[in-house]
Amino acid sequence: MDKFITLVLSILHVSKTLVLTVLLAGLVLISASTPVWAAQLDARINPNDDTSPFKISYLKTVFIEYADGGNLFEALRGNEWTVSGTADSSDPGVQKLIDELNKTILSDGSQARVSDLNVTYDFHLKARNINTSVDYRVILEGDLTNYIITKDSQKTLIDLGWRGLSADSEIVIDGVEINIPINILKAQEPDAYTFFAGIDAEDILSVPLINADFILQQPMTNWHFLFDPTGVSVDAGTFGLDESISGFVVSSWTMGESSLREGRQVERVFEAEIMSDQIYVVRSVQSADAASLSTIGFGALDIIDGVEIAGVSPTSPEGYVTTSTGKFPVTIMYGMAGMAALGGIGFFIYSSRSLKNVTQGQQGIDPSRLIGYQTSASAGGYQTNRGEAQLRDDSDYQKTRSVYDDTQQQSLPSTQVETTPQTPPPQTSTPTMVDQACGCEADSGDPDYACDCAMQGACICSADCKCNTDVCKEAVSQL
Predict the structure, then answer these.
(1) pLDDT (tens digit, 9 = 90+) per residue, 251-272?
(2) Is 54 contained in some domain?
(3) What is the DSSP secondary structure assignment for residue 425, as one 8-state letter?
(4) Which of 132, 342, 358, 445 is most buried, most CB within 10 Å of its CB?
């Protein structure tokens, strides 16, 4: 009992150690991974209101690699810090950012404007043995106005050309520059900054963080379109409305999938080498942008003066039923589903019938074609009754005989005489009295002495004995 308890405790200890090892490895991988997302836009447009909320996040990761150590490694060794903060539209830096965003929207041909804005920023540097990562994150949450072009009782035209929310100049909030990545390194790591100054690495780190040009460049006709024709009340909260939204259509467009229709979405990587006491690599990584736009009502896309718009109506057109991009008839979808179901049922019916048609009963060789054959040999006055079953005819013998029979025969040296005769095919009839006669000679020298097979072991046969009985063949094989 004590040994059993000891064994159980040992197993539990090993299992606990294994679990802790796996958890530790997972934590190392998680801590070593960094986000590489780019611009992510989420907006919900209410055509029945003058303002609608939006949120957009800008994220980027910069890697500084020094595989062979060096002075840059020494300048960053063991460093880790975070710079973060928030600000609203009362901050001069936020007001400047609003002006920059509206200037970009105007240059894109849109009449919409950003009226209010809250800014959250977070920059984190962590130095490791082979590289240093710097994570940049800026989140803008605000209100959008002036997006309604025209409105009547039948349809409302909504401006969608404001999607490229970008700013090119420096934006300083509470003394922290949040738009140009190199500036935070210059302020927090002046010794490391000297390695980037005046070279391609500085150009890579000078690309503005607040940039959503790709979201505007991707035509909304390539975005996925979904709508809820029932206007479920659970969506009302996302628009800041009550249950009165029930019964209205809610349309949504999403961008970010990598497909043949939308194009291949890949992360954007910019890389440069620093030639100093060692060769260092600076890499800026951003994934493909993503966006989601929603509006109350059924939205039909169009273009006016090069600006994408959506014509929004309270209900969807009669007969229009779809759940994805394009006017794919619902009857075809249901028909394809029905055909798939019928195909599955047919397959199971066919399989069931095939199983029932499988031949039952005796399988293999017909027992009537087999015959018993005695394989035992006598020794002294004792003989066993061993035997085996073989086919009545040996027409298939050449197909099944061992190839080693011929190989062994051919491999014998020319000077070696094989004294073991080949075993003849099994007899298919009972031996006659003639077969039982043995013309063997004895050692007594008496030529008239002849042994009979019935004498069993008392018979001493010569090598020329032709008797086919087992006792004689055994005696001959021993000579």
Answers:
(1) 899 987 656 555 566 677 899 9
(2) yes
(3) P
(4) 132
Q: Could you tell me the CA-to-CA distances from 4 to 17, 190, 291, 350 in Å, in that order?
A: 20, 64, 61, 55
pLDDT, tens digit, for every residue of 81-107?
999 999 999 999 999 999 999 999 999
Burial 244-268 (b: 16+ CB within 10 A, else e): ebeebbbbbbbbbeeeeebeebeee
Q: What is the C-alpha radius of gyration for the chain, rounded to an integer number of angstroms?
A: 46
8 A C-beta contact, residue 162 and residue 147: yes
Task: Give yes or no: residues 209 and 98 share one domain.
Answer: yes
Lowest mean pLDDT among 39-48, 208-217, 257-266, 270-279: 257-266
By C-alpha distance, which of 98, 145, 88 is closest to 119? 88
SS3 277: coil
H or E stretch covering 345: helix 330-356
Same domain? 48 vs 193? yes
The pLDDT of 350-379, averaged and rounded, is 67
Evaluate whether 295 touches 46 at the Cβ level (below 8 Å): yes
In a domain, 322, yes or no: no
Its domain, for residue 186, covers 31-150+161-223+261-290
With contact defined as beta carbons under 8 Å apart, do 46 and 167 qualify? no
Whether 266 and 406 map to the same domain: the answer is: no
Res. 121: pLDDT tops 90: yes
In a domain, 432, yes or no: yes
Q: Please give the residue that has the higher pLDDT: either 113 or 426.
A: 113
Q: Which residues of 319-343 are buried (b: 16+ CB within 10 A; e: fewer)?
A: eeebeebeeeeeeeeeeeeeeeeee
Angle at 26 between CA 23 and CA 30, to 5 degrees: 140
Please state, in angstroms and rounded to a whole number, the distance separating the CA atoms of residues 144 and 8: 65
Q: CA-to-CA distance for 17 and 15, rounded, in angstroms?
A: 5
**CA atoms 321, 326, 327, 328: torsion sign:** negative
Domain assignment present for 256 = no
Number of other residues whose CB lies within 10 A of the CB of residue 317: 10
CA 475 vs CA 380, 381, 419: distances in Å: 12, 14, 12
- CA separation for the pair 210, 58 (Å, rounded): 6
The one-character DSSP state at 262 is T
Q: What is the DSSP string of 25-45?
A: HHHHHHHH-------EEEEEE
| pTM of this prediction exceeds 0.85 | no
User: Residue 114 is inside which H or E element, if any?
Assistant: strand 113-127
Structure tokens given for 143: 């209100």
Write the pLDDT tens digit of every residue in 3-20. Answer: 444 544 454 444 444 434
Q: Could you give the number of structural domains in the chain?
A: 2
